[in-house]
Amino acid sequence: MRTKKAEPSTVGEILNEEFLKPMNMSLCKLAELTGMSYSRIRKIIIHNDPISIKEALLLAEVFHTDPDFWINLQNVRHDWHQKCN
Q: Which UniProt keywords apply (predicted)?
């Protein structure tokens, strides 16, 4: 019997739940810190838009993470969807 693994979290889910909420940071503040537009950040969080390498670099700078952290989150989700289809 094959067990189906749970769908991986999106970049937006991780960004919101693991970074913004614990830091009590608004989307407006993140936009200010990254130079990304509020609407772009909202699309990443609400609509699960994929991020670019430049956006991964900006998030990494603000949250003191590695850009690969953000890209890997996205790639894991993409790979999961490829395997499920």
A: DNA-binding
